[in-house]
Amino acid sequence: MTAIPQSGMRDFFVCDLFDASPKADLGSMEHPMFSLSTRPDRTIRSYVRGDVEVTVTPSVRGRATIHDKDILIYCISQLMAAVNAGRTISRKLTLTAHDLLVAVRRDTGGDSYTRLREAFERLAGTRITTNIVTGEEETTSGFGLIEAWEIVRKTRGGRMVSVTVTLSEWLFRAVTAKSVLTLSRDYFSLRKPLERRVYELARKHCGNQREWRVTVATLHEKAGSDAPVRVFRAAVRKMIAADNLPDYTLVEDDGDVIRFSRKRLVEDVPGLPAFSTDTMDQARTMAPGFDVYALEAEWRAFWVTAGRQKLTNPDKAFLGWLRGRVKR
Q1: Which pTM value belongs to this model?
Q2: I want to staple 135 with a disulfide (CB 3.0 to 4.6 A). Which of 146, 158, 173, 210 is the partner?
Q3: 216-223 and 229-242 are packed helices; what angle lies between their axes, rounded to 10 degrees?
Q4: Which residue did the predictor score with more confidence, 230 or 281?
């Protein structure tokens, strides 16, 4: 696999890649680090799931919101696109505010730049203490969601034009380890915080598989909602009725269970090749940090598009394709 340049090889990275696929890190998709509130949230939150502990300490400006996370998604997307293009990356990025706003489908009027500055302040002020493993390395550490930010240039009217952002070592390590997942571009069209959070969980746990089942109580905990469970359940039921989530459909099953299903599955194509358990284990070894089920779905889509050629050894064909895929 192609080696990924580490931080320190260059002082900064310029975000200049057009139409980079939106990506988010697995750690913040799994654990509720971001506020779902539209009001400043200054409460210290602690979450424990298995062996992982996460404590989120906001600043006086409040905890970073899930809409503030757009900035991190944009930065991660730019870095991963650069990695795939063989470019050197750094955890210090220089970006154009207008390009960021357009990429995350926000208005580019004057107020948007003010809100963007406020988002930078919340991201830098929100502190995370956790032992989440990134890049096969477990450390207990404390860090800001971003380490620093600085406005490089303004217009005469005071509008932000260019800004530098320094990501935390923890987040940058997730990028270099490819511990990220691609999001639907329609993610940015979701305006309700809970919709965004539930989509993240669906993408992380259901991925490109046929379905994921979870109890309402567990979904409530994973979402990080402050609402009582009964209020949360009612909000999820509204989400089920609206059916607005990209890629996924939600259904309420017996036993207070929510079932997430992929809307359009390549798996429904007749004669779709299946892979052995050994092949999937080899895929995990060949592509550490990747979602192997997403890779499986990507290959199947490629196979269907190519005309569904008859394969004497589907496992070998998939692993051969994968060798080239992880080197991009």
Answers
A1: 0.78
A2: 173
A3: 90
A4: 230
Contact criterion met (CB below 8 Å) for 146 and 168: yes
- pLDDT > 70: percent of the chain: 90
Pull the structure tokens for residue 90. 């750094």
Residue 156 tokens read as 């005469």
Candidates 37, 152, 139; CA nearest to 93 is 152
**Which one has a higher pLDDT value, 305 or 238?**
238
Helix, strand, or coil (residue 153): strand
Paired strand residues for 94: 14, 164
Q: How far apart are CA 281 and CA 71, in angstroms?
A: 34
Residue 238 contacts by C-beta under 8 Å, 6 or more apart in sequence? none
Specify the residue for token string 């998604």. 73
**Residue 12 token pair:** 């900064």
Tell me: pLDDT of 8 over 60.
no
**CA–CA separation, 37 and 74 (whole Å):** 21
Helices 314-326, 292-305: axis angle to 10 degrees equals: 110
> What pairing do the DSSP bridges indicate for beta strands 127-130 and 146-154?
unpaired
Is it the case that residue 7 has pLDDT exceeding 90?
A: no
The alpha-carbon radius of gyration of the chain (Å, integer) is 20
For residue 126, give every residue at least 6 positions away whose Cβ sits within 8 Å of its Cβ, in sequence order, or none. Answer: 33, 56, 57, 58, 59, 63, 64, 144, 145
